[in-house]
Write a structure and sequence with these properties.
Strand content: 5-15%
Number of helices: 13
CATH class of the largest domain: Alpha Beta
Radius of gyration: 21 Å
Number of strands: 14
Strand order of the largest sheet: 1-9-8-5
CATH superfamily of the largest domain: Type I PLP-dependent aspartate aminotransferase-like (Major domain)
């Protein structure tokens, strides 16, 4: 058995090598490196996949979040409600623009934003809500959208970890995450479910006016070259990455299905272990398992992680320090926020390898080692 990887990008690449290589070579041959035909084609294909009116590529997922906040015209001091249990990029852009992050707790089962906590956090200064579809599963969007509409608040979906996830509304209608709120944002970082071979990102909206403003902001605030109407930035998806993503997009549903299959095998193997709680699957959305994240009970999580690493089994803690306790925000006083579920999760979550090429042999090896390690350490 070859060396295990958290995400095995090489094995994913090999079956589509000829398509990928040809796509890259075509960009090189045409020398259309910036805003080449593949960028627009990918944007159109992605919009069709998500069933959203506008898909606007940009340089990375963090830029997507920043551009979304800029497009909404938020001003320094405005409050943005966001979970603390997320990758720092979600919060970083809020602070970068001089906005005030207001942290809310998450649900203990599916790790996503607690809607009742959002309700209590809304104030006259609240100007936007950022739900994070964490680990591959959607926030419960129907009640969140109803709450946002009640207070006339835009919703910016952080969909960096859940592209391809389908949300089902109470009336049975469905929509893909990222295409539900006012603006959706995603990342094409290589390890994502739809990843390129460098950095990349995109924004999504059904609002024509917002789409025009987003395009301007991402292009130095201009519609016509050298005529800059608003303050913007330089955030482009380069053509080589767009060409790679065009090849990979038709495989996305298959990739997500392979992740779910691996997660099913993990679930079955861990079902009898009282020290392991397998990922919850909400009835209102499909889970695309960007991460397969366990909750450990009655055992030292860090000791388990170290022991697995010694056995050659990759694992990660997403995330060891919650956003509200990060040093970058210490002057805001956010460390005083009462987020008991977030604090609990930061001490007990552990993510295992999950990707499109996991074999039965690898899963059997990983699960046997995890079960044995956890049981031994629980007795210590």
């Amino acid at each position: 058995m070859q060396k295990l990887q958290m995400v095995d990008l090489r094995r994913q690449y090999l079956p589509i090598k000829n398509e990928i290589d040809a796509a890259i070579q075509n960009v090189i041959d045409t020398t259309a490196f910036i805003n080449g035909p593949d960028v627009k084609a990918f944007a159109d294909e992605l919009a069709q996949y998500l069933d959203v009116k506008h898909a606007i590529p940009c340089a990375n997922g963090t830029d997507a979040l920043q551009i979304a906040l800029m497009a909404l015209g938020l001003q320094p001091g405005d409050e943005v409600i966001t979970p603390s249990f997320t990758y720092i990029a979600t919060v970083e852009v809020v602070a970068l623009l001089g906005l005030t992050p207001v942290f809310v707790d998450v649900n203990a089962d599916n790790f996503t934003m607690d809607i009742e906590a959002v309700r209590k956090a809304i104030s006259p200064k609240t100007k936007a809500i950022i739900p994070v579809h964490l680990y591959g599963q959607s926030v419960d969007m129907a009640p969140l959208l109803a709450l946002a509409a009640q207070h006339n608040l835009p919703v910016i979906e952080d969909n960096a970890q859940a592209i391809g996830s389908v949300y089902t509304f109470p009336d049975g209608t469905q929509a893909k995450t990222g295409a539900i709120g006012t603006i959706g944002c995603t990342s094409f970082f290589p390890s994502k479910n739809l990843g390129c071979y460098g950095d990349g990102g995109a924004l999504f909206t059904n609002d024509d006016a917002l789409a025009e403003k987003i395009r301007m902001i991402a292009n130095h605030g201009q519609k016509v070259k050298y005529y800059h109407e608003i303050v913007g930035c330089n955030s482009r998806l380069d053509t080589i990455q767009a060409a790679i993503l065009r090849v990979k997009l038709p495989h996305l549903d298959r990739y997500n299905a392979a992740r779910r299959q691996a997660a099913d095998a993990y679930d079955a193997a861990f079902s009898g272990n009282p020290h392991l709680e397998t990922p919850f699957r909400a009835p209102y959305s499909t889970h695309v398992f960007h991460q397969y994240t366990l909750k450990l009970k009655g055992v030292d999580r860090d000791a388990v992680a170290a022991a697995l690493t010694e056995q050659g089994i990759p694992n990660m803690i997403y995330y060891p320090v919650p956003s509200h306790r990060q040093n970058m925000l210490r002057e805001t006083g956010s460390a005083n926020a009462a987020l008991p579920v977030t604090e609990m999760l930061n001490k007990c979550v552990l993510s295992l390898p999950i990707h499109t090429e996991l074999t039965k042999e690898e899963i059997d090896f990983i699960t046997a080692a995890v079960n044995e390690t956890v049981s031994q350490l629980a007795k210590a």
